[in-house]
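Postdoc handover notes: sequence design on the structure in folder B. Input tokens:
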């Protein structure tokens, strides 16, 4: 099971990440260097399978949130290098939460609870409609306003089901 962790910051560099010695995969993988407000740096490996929220192009200077699997093995190097599962470019009035949501549609960390409306778009990561139940699944939730309660309540405008 995926355990979503995240790191937020500004993309300071994007470069190619070679994956083979014979140049077959050159250009297909990238390294995003991301620096947060405290000066901490993370390198995200961007694979062809990395999901970009709303399919937006990311460039140096953009503020992003990178989601990665906290259960995946990581090389013991500094700065840390994580394989990005998803990247969200920061947009005004849009919040993004990637987490496991239980049978009450509450996130595993207890900070967000979902109210699903008929207008909420339910999609798979390939943008096809999702018709199953959202309970007890890994979800990427896109939402605007939320309450200040704990957990915060929100009606998302889009949910990507991470099968």
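Designed sequence:
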């Amino acid at each position: 099971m995926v355990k979503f962790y995240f790191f937020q910051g500004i993309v300071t560099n994007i470069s190619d990440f070679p994956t083979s010695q014979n140049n077959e995969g050159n250009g297909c993988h990238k390294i995003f260097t991301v620096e947060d407000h405290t000066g901490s740096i993370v390198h995200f490996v961007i694979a062809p399978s990395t999901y970009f929220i709303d399919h937006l192009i990311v460039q140096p200077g953009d503020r992003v949130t990178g989601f990665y699997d906290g259960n995946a093995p990581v090389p013991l190097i500094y700065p840390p290098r994580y394989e990005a599962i998803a990247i969200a470019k920061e947009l005004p009035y849009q919040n993004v939460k990637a987490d496991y949501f239980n049978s009450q549609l509450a996130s595993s960390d207890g900070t967000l609870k979902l109210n699903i409306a008929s207008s909420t778009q339910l999609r798979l990561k390939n943008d096809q409609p999702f018709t199953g139940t959202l309970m007890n699944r890994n979800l990427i939730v896109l939402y605007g306003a939320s309450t200040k309660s704990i957990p915060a309540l929100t009606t998302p405008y889009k949910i990507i089901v991470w099968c």
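Context for whoever picks this up: The mean pLDDT is 93. Don't rerun without checking with the PI first.
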